[in-house]
Amino acid sequence: MANIRLLELRNTYKWGGGPDKTILLSAARHNRDVVDVIVVYIRDVRDHEFSITAKAKDMGLTFYELEERGKLDLRVLRALRDIVIRHDINLIHGHDYKSDLFAYLLRRWLRQRHFALLSTAHAWVMLGPRGALYRQMDLWLMKRFDHLLAVSHATKDEMVTAGVAPALITVLHNGIDTEEWRPRVNMPTLRDELGLAPHVPVFGYVGRIMPEKDLETWLRAAAVVGARYPDAQFILVGEGRDSSILTHLQKLAAELGIAARVHFPGYRSHLFPVYAAFDVFVLTSRREGLPNSVLEAMAMGVPVVTTDVAGTKELVADGATGFVLPQGDVHGIAQAMLQLLDDTPLRHAMGQASRKRVEQDFSFTGRLQRIEALYAHLVGRVPEPRQGSSVPQDVR
After folding, report:
1. Which CATH superfamily is domain 190-361 in?
2. Long-range contacts from 80-86, C-beta under 8 angstroms, 24+ separation
3. Who has the most CB within 10 Å: 126, 158, 175, 376?
4. pLDDT tens across 145-175, in order?
5. How far is CA 152 from the centre of its chain?
């Protein structure tokens, strides 16, 4: 049995998002001589589109899906207790306010057992009063954990401003498998499915169709670009919790006069043909952590136009791999999109620079080695630091 017996704990809906790609791939790639991984997902019993279980089983993971009935289902807590005991877990890694809450309650309940608590702050993206409440609750819980990960320096700064001790937080950027995510020659793309000619300029987005993504700004910038380039096409790939935001965006596209050139192909599990169809990737979010979609676009050699939201400005080197603009800046975003369309050599150079940057700075293998070192530290395989010291430098 490995010395690190890890429970990855997560609560999400439908197909998940960027954090779930990281969780599942990490579980599949961990050194089995070092880490035994149990992955547990809590899902709403009403979520009939939940598809992460199938992905996890296809990857050969030890996986549990726990159905939740209500905001705090104690049956889930009891099931988690049984899993902790059955697998002799000595480290629980939470990934959202709900999983952090259950991890905290498990420690309180199972006082006789010794396991460390770690949480990753992927960012609190939900807007409005409910999102603010969840953020406040999660930060309260995090202060009681053994250690915390932030996916960006911006996220760490937000945590510190909220009163979390800086020494408790390690910044660990998301990583990507650059062998898997790479440009491919002569592969079919989404252009073929949509009947778009190879020379037609295409701007794309991949992610959830949710308010925090500010896709209204995305479409308004697209309309400016479309006025200059009547053949330009705009593709937004993804879905939301329901169809309300999508319906609103479709209506806005019609009002802007670009409905015939805006495509909403829905959620796609296979994304290589999607990114391969894009000339430019555009992100207009108001709330993010460190978006995997930007890493994926960069790894595929696609230049990025993004807002200066949280960790995106730590991914995109403004003027080198793409452009970083203020949130809500329709004119600035549109001008950046036009500059990349007007200047083909610049677009290609930025795409190549994006790929190189991901290879150098955002390797998934390097990230995995750093997190395994942190896990080892937390479960006691590395001597505990003296009072007031931080975690070893090699996991920062």
Report:
1. Glycogen Phosphorylase B; (3.40.50.2000)
2. 80/9, 80/40, 80/106, 81/106, 81/109, 81/110, 83/7, 83/38, 83/40, 84/7, 84/110, 84/113, 84/115, 85/110, 85/113
3. 175
4. 999 999 999 999 999 999 999 999 999 999 9
5. 11
Handedness of CA 389, 391, 394, 395 (dihedral sign): negative
In sequence order, the 6+-apart residues with CB closer than 8 A to the CB of 329 are 217, 307
- Listed by start position, the domains of the chain span 4-175+363-395, 190-361
CATH 3.40.50.300 fits 4-175+363-395, yes or no: no
CA distance linking residue 332 with residue 338, whole number of Å: 10
The amino acid sitting at 285 is S
CA distance 160 to 181: 34
Half-sphere exposure of 279 (CA within 13 A, CB side): 23
- Rounded Cα distance between 46 and 14, Å, is 10
**Does residue 391 register a pLDDT over 60?**
no
pTM of the model: 0.86
